[in-house]
Amino acid sequence: MNGLQLLGTGRSLPSRRVTNDDFARTLDTSDEWIAGRTGIRQRYFCAQGETAASLAASAARQALADAGVAPAGIGLCVAATFTADRRTPSLACEVHEALGLPETALCLDVNAACTGFVTALETARCLLLGGQMAAPYALVLGAERISGLLDFSDRSTCVLFGDGAGAAVVRLDPDAPWAAVFGTRGDGQVLHGGGPADPYLAMDGRAVFRFAVETVPACIRAVLDKAGLTLDAVDWLVCHQANSRILHSIAKKLEQDPARFYENMQRYGNTSAASIPIALDEMRRDGRLRPGETVICAGFGAGLTWGGALLRV
Ligand code: ACO
Q: How open is the CA angle 222-311-166, to the nearest 5 degrees?
C-alpha cells in the first residue's frame, strides 16, 4: 500500500531515424545480425539542436497535459538519466526551466543507468510519503542522449542504443498497491563509459546478458513475494528494453508466455532510463494498458544495478 497513482504519461523521440540497413552502409554488420541477436530494427538519434533536456521537456509537457495537471501542481521532479547534457544544472532543473515549474518544487536527477526509471519512481514515492513536498504531484522521467557516448566505429555497441525520453505524472495513493526490490553489484568492468579513460560506452555483452537473465527473474519473484501476489495477478511485465532475447529468456525462467512482456526495442533500441516510461506511454495510448491494471516494471543495467516495482496504473 502507499503506492502511486499514474495520472498521465508522455514520450519524445528525436528526429533522426537510423535503421539497421543504415548502419550496414558504414559498418561490417547487417539487419539480419542485429535484429536476430537483439530484436532491434531501428533507433532514433538526436540531430543538431536536440538534447536530453529538449526530449525530457517535450515528454514532460505531454505527461502533464495527459494528466490534466498544471505545472503549478508539481511538488517534485525526478529525472533518471546517465547522459544529461551537462554536469550542472541537472536535467530535472532544465525541465523545471522549460516548463515553468514552481519555485517550491524539489528537482533532482538520479543515475541508476537502465534501472533509473524504477529508481526514480521509488525516490518520488518516498519523498511524497515524507510529507514535505509543497504540492501533491510528482513528475518522474527518464531521458537519455546515449548517442553522445557511442563509438560509431564499434559495431558491438553502437547498434544497440537509441536516444529518447518518457515521463509520468504520479501522486501518492494510500490505497494503491506498491512493492519494490532493488539490487546493486558494484562492477566497473562489465558495462562502463563516459569517463576520461573510457569516453565511449563499452561492455562485455555476454556478461551483461547473463547478469540480466540471472537477476531479473529473481527480482520479479521477490517483488511478487513482497506484494503477496502471484504472476497471474499481474497484467503486464514491462522490462527495460535492451534485447528481445533477454526478455524471452526471462519469460522462460518465469515459465511465462513472452507475449506478457511488452516489447518495443524493435523501434527504439535500448534507450536506458527512458525505455520503461516510453513503453508505459505507448501502452496507455494504444489502449493496451487500461486503468486499474497491475504492472511490474523491471530495470537492469550498468552499475551493475537492477530493480523492480509493482504498481497499479
Ligand atoms: N554485426 C555483426 N557482427 C557483430 C556485431 C554486429 N553489430 N557485433 C558483434 N559482432 C560479432 C563479434 O565481433 C563476434 O565475432 P567473432 O565471433 O568473429 O569474434 C560475433 O559477432 C559474436 O559476438 P558476441 O558478442 O559473442 O555475440 P552475442 O551473441 O553475445 O551477441 C550482444 C552480442 C547482442 C551484444 C549480446 O551479448 C547482448 O545482447 N548482450 C546484452 C547487451 C545489453 O543488453 N547491453 C545493454 C544493457 S544495460 C545498459 O543499457 C546500460
A: 110
Beta bridge partners of 238: 297
Instruction: Give percent above pLDDT 70 in the chain.
Output: 100
- Using alpha carbons, select from 95, 91, 72, 71 the residue that is nearest to residue 83: 91
What does the alpha-carbon distance between residue 135 and residue 133 come to, in Å, rounded to a whole number?
A: 6
Taking CB atoms and a 6 Å cutoff, what residues make up the pocket around ligand 1?
29, 33-34, 37-38, 113-114, 155-156, 159-160, 191, 203, 205-206, 208-209, 242-243, 270, 272, 301-302
Q: Is 218 exposed, middle or buried (CB count within 10 Å of its CB: 0-12, 13-18, 19+)?
A: middle
- What are 134-156's pLDDT values in tens digits? 999 999 999 999 999 999 999 99
Mean pLDDT confidence for 257-277 = 98
β-bridge pairing 164-173 and 3-12: antiparallel
